[in-house]
Design goal:
Helix content is 39%, strand content 16%. The protein is α/β, with parallel strands linked by helices. Helix 1 packs across helix 2, helix 3 packs across helix 17 and helix 15 packs across helix 22. Helix 22 links the parallel strand 17 and strand 18. The radius of gyration is 24 Å and the shape is globular. It is built from 22 helices and 18 strands. The protein has a 6-stranded parallel β-sheet with strand order 3-2-4-5-7-6, sandwiched between helices. Its EC number is 2.2.1.6. GO terms for molecular function: acetolactate synthase activity. This is Acetolactate synthase.
Length: 540
């Protein structure tokens, strides 16, 4: 039985949002969207506001990622929407079901030069799954339902609606559409069987599992498939922690050895992009498992590419009826490489150097972080070390900008993470370059009593640019920041707390104070500018 709803446009929108499980709003105040605030205020719907619209979208994305449900950002017209486009684009690349509701200048005088008058749709349509202007209050529930259905349908992604002033301020009367079920995509059974056969028959198979494994609630199915077929597993993105570090098939540090020696590489729930050498694994056959046909790589010809619900595909792999090769020797070979790398990493994470090396920071963080801590990476060079030294113990505990590589996610992700998990540690790993994008939103966290810990690796340079530019040209420009800048003082001025650390021995007590503080707390660690993450450029 359908329900009829009455009210102004904000009330109609909120009724549809609630029906889809949306439980909070992230925003920066703007008159074009006052009715949405009115509806939320009158019904006790939580509103979290920020100092830059991109942080509102990033906060909504963190909710969408961590909770696997829609996240909501509300942005005022014109610059409010354009300031949020980087967040929308990141959500698009990350397949995050974010809904952005935008204000819009009045339609009845369109073209006359109203405040912040612009057509948003041409800007946002390329980076959303659904983009629409809703011209009447009566049509708002239908539009919200359509946008959220598109956002939640694999391959997931953001959606956008904007409301002209007269539509959102007007009173309407409409049926509240039923929330449609999202039907799983059934993969071609022959393609699934082909892929399962390749994995089972391989002598040296490797699995690389990415963010869509978590987003598609396929973590348990991944473990079952890996165990049934005895295949070593590496992860990236939100796939990290899908197998706990203690699992006999979980690997993190022997990836180079694995990919060099593998005869079948199975990439599940992540694109064959620059993070995976664009899918070029030498002579190895590639099995690419994706959650929708649109995600099949166009630049690589895989040996098999089943597309559909990852839980169903991985369950079919686990139940593969044919013969299965013995992978014990291959797993043992990788374990030797993994253990040797762990020894080297342990030495680096314990280094007593002056200035501090980034590895030592991660060595102390490994001791300070609880198994269910949410760790957020917002940076280039400094955060690159996190992939090497941090090993999430549980799925759904790691957030990074993803393949779009947009800096400035940190404070928005921190807000969304704190709202999602009020009782967990929230730790943001931030380069000093990235700090310039969003640190002002510490004020938003402090004012709304949302404590997080921020660890800044402060080397006074743009590390991923300065060193490569020097190698290429013999000089560098536009790659220096103020050495020793007191980002902790910035946080103190914004209502938080912090300190600067210059000696490795002072790291552990500083982190203890940070996690015990109950306020946004920044640990500003002065690191060695000569210590750059050892990897080639990803510019190709």
């Amino acid at each position: 039985m359908t329900e009829r709803v009455e009210g102004h446009g904000g009330e109609l929108a909120l009724a549809a949002l609630r029906a889809h499980g949306v439980r909070e709003m992230f925003t920066l105040s703007g008159g074009h969207v006052f009715p949405l605030y009115d509806a939320a205020h009158k019904t006790g719907f939580p509103i979290y506001d920020v100092r830059h619209e991109q942080s509102a979208v990033f906060a909504a994305e963190a909710v969408a990622k961590l909770q696997r449900r829609p996240g909501l950002a509300v942005l005022t017209a014109g610059p409010g929407v354009t300031n949020g486009v980087s967040g929308l684009t990141s959500a698009f690349f990350n397949a995050s079901p974010v809904l952005v509701l935008g204000g819009r200048a009045p339609q009845f005088r369109w073209g006359s030069g109203s405040l912040q008058e612009m057509d948003h749709l041409p800007l946002v349509a390329p980076v959303t799954k659904h983009a629409e202007t809703v011209f009447s209050a009566d049509d708002i529930p239908r539009a919200v339902t359509a946008a959220l259905t598109a956002a939640l349908t694999p391959h997931r992604g953001p959606a956008f609606l904007d409301f002209p002033l007269e539509a959102v301020f007007s009173v309407g009367d409409a049926e509240l559409p039923a929330v449609p079920p999202i039907a799983p995509i059934e993969a071609d059974p022959d393609e699934v069987a082909k892929a399962g056969g390749l994995i089972a028959a391989a002598g040296r198979p490797v699995i690389i599992a990415g963010s869509d494994v978590y987003a598609g609630d396929a973590v348990d199915a991944l473990r079952a498939a890996a165990e049934a077929l005895a295949v070593p597993v590496f992860t990236n993105g939100m796939g990290r922690g899908a197998l706990p570090p203690t699992h006999p098939l979980a690997f993190a540090k022997a990836r180079r050895v694995a990919l060099k020696g593998a005869d079948v590489v199975v990439v599940i729930g992540t694109p064959l992009d620059f993070r995976l050498g664009f899918g070029d694994f030498g002579d190895a056959k590639v099995v690419h498992v994706v959650d929708a046909p649109s995600q099949r790589a166009g630049h690589v010809q895989p040996a098999a590419a089943p597309a559909g619900d990852l839980r169903l595909i991985l369950t079919a792999f686990a139940e593969h009826p044919g013969d299965r090769a013995d992978h014990a020797d291959w797993i043992a070979q990788l374990r030797v490489a993994e253990d040797a790398a762990k020894v080297r990493d342990a030495e680096e994470m314990a280094a007593e150097t002056d200035p501090i090396r980034p590895a030592r920071i991660y060595g102390e963080l490994r001791k300070a972080l609880a198994p269910d801590a949410i760790t957020i990476g917002d940076g280039g060079d400094f955060v690159s070390y996190a992939g090497r030294y941090l090993e999430p113990a549980q799925p759904g505990t790691w957030l990074d900008p993803g393949p779009y590589g947009c800096l400035g996610t940190g404070m928005g992700y921190a807000m969304g993470a704190r709202v999602s998990h009020p009782d967990r540690q929230i730790c943001v790993l931030m380069g000093d370059g990235a700090a310039g994008f969003s640190l002002m939103d510490v004020e938003s966290l402090a004012r709304q009593q949302l404590p997080v810990v921020i660890v800044v690796g402060n080397n006074g340079i743009w590390g991923l640019e300065k060193h490569p530019m020097r190698a290429m040209y013999g000089y560098d420009v536009a790659a220096d920041l103020q050495p020793g800048l007191r980002y902790d003082k910035v946080v103190e001025a914004l209502g938080g707390a912090g300190e600067t650390v210059e000696k490795a021995a002072d790291l552990a007590p500083a982190l203890t104070r940070a996690f015990d503080s109950g306020v946004p707390y920044l640990v500003n660690v002065l690191t060695d500018p000569a210590d750059a993450y050892p990897r080639s450029s990803n510019l190709a």
